[in-house]
Write a structure and sequence with these properties.
17% of the residues lie in helices and 47% in strands. It has 306 residues and is α+β, with helices and mostly antiparallel strands. It has two domains: 2-68, no CATH class; 82-303, Beta Barrel (Porin).
Length: 306
């Protein structure tokens, strides 16, 4: 009887030991399992053992979350890199600038203040004024240039097109300036290289509204073209020429290389986010390039949210 009891007690002890081993092993098996048949990580986590909280664990987790996901600065509406800027001033952004230019021997000099304003993100107005400074004649030419968005972000974000119209009045001669109509286009080949045509003041279609010095009213269509290069975030270079000027009425047909080879090299340096400094050098390689040499220096200040 005693031996039978001993065997029973031993069996009970063995069963308890086996159950204990299974109980200790079950959490480990559950935590190492791979979700299958739609089982979620949340379901597996529910079967994992709960560890007691360690002092400062919540603070450490909060700190880890903060450092792991830093805040991203909002992108600029008008970047420092000229090649990345929209072709119209953003809404409520004002522009105040001034240029001074001269020919090779300073026999002709001019000043050119300019104002600009973004009415909306897709519509801007620029008001350039030009007058002679050699004789200090303040009467000059006042123009108004309006640009409205046609395309923006096309071709995978590389293409932008702005319709532009310019007209004005010469206060000195008391005559209207030619009406200029065109499309300002920029296609970014890369983040640093772009092809441009029709910048303000070089619209493709020119229509004279009054007789000029030859008693004609010239009308012509031209194809200006430029290449922009951004070697650094604050430095921009652009080389401009005119491939063709086609006579439509009382004008002349001019072909690049055969009749004229106008070249203008412009450099823009963004000294501050709201301040551009610029300089330009221009000549005609086909017609006495030394004598036709001219240069320009100027600045642009932007007022408003960049």
């Amino acid at each position: 009887m005693t031996r039978s009891n001993d065997r029973t007690i031993a069996s009970i002890h063995c069963a308890l030991a086996t159950l204990s081993a299974i109980a200790w092993a079950s959490p480990a098996i559950a935590s190492d399992a791979v979700p299958r048949d739609g089982a979620s990580a949340a379901n597996l986590a529910a079967t994992a053992p709960i560890e007691p909280a360690r002092p400062g664990a919540d603070d450490a987790a909060a700190h880890a979350t903060t450092t792991a996901a830093p805040e991203v600065a909002p992108s600029s509406r008008y970047p420092r890199a000229v090649i990345a800027r929209p072709l119209t001033l953003p809404a409520q952004l004002g522009m105040l600038g001034a240029d001074t230019s001269a020919n090779r021997d300073f026999s002709a000099m001019a000043g050119a203040p300019i104002l600009g304003f973004g009415i909306t993100d897709a519509l801007e107005v620029q008001v350039p004024y030009a007058f002679a400074t050699k004789e200090l004649e303040l009467k000059g030419t006042l123009n108004v240039d309006v640009g409205g968005m046609v395309l923006r972000g096309a071709a995978g974000g590389k293409l932008e097109a702005i319709a532009r119209v310019r007209g004005g009045y010469n206060l000195l001669t008391e005559t209207t300036t030619p009406l200029m109509i065109g499309v300002h286009v920029q296609y970014n080949l890369t983040d640093t290289l772009a092809v441009i045509s029709g910048v303000p003041g070089s619209q493709q279609l020119r229509i004279a509204l009054e007789d000029d010095a030859t008693l004609g009213q010239p009308v012509d269509l031209s194809l200006p073209i430029g290449v922009g290069y951004q070697p650094a975030s604050t430095l921009y270079l652009q080389l401009d020429t005119r491939l063709l000027q086609l006579d439509l009425h009382d004008s002349a047909t001019v072909v690049l290389g055969a009749d004229a080879t106008p070249l203008t090299l412009t450099a823009v340096y963004n000294l501050l986010p709201a301040l551009d400094l610029q300089a330009a050098l221009a000549t005609d390689l086909s017609n006495e390039p030394g004598d036709s040499l001219s240069f320009l220096v100027g600045a642009r200040y932007y007022a408003g949210a960049l």
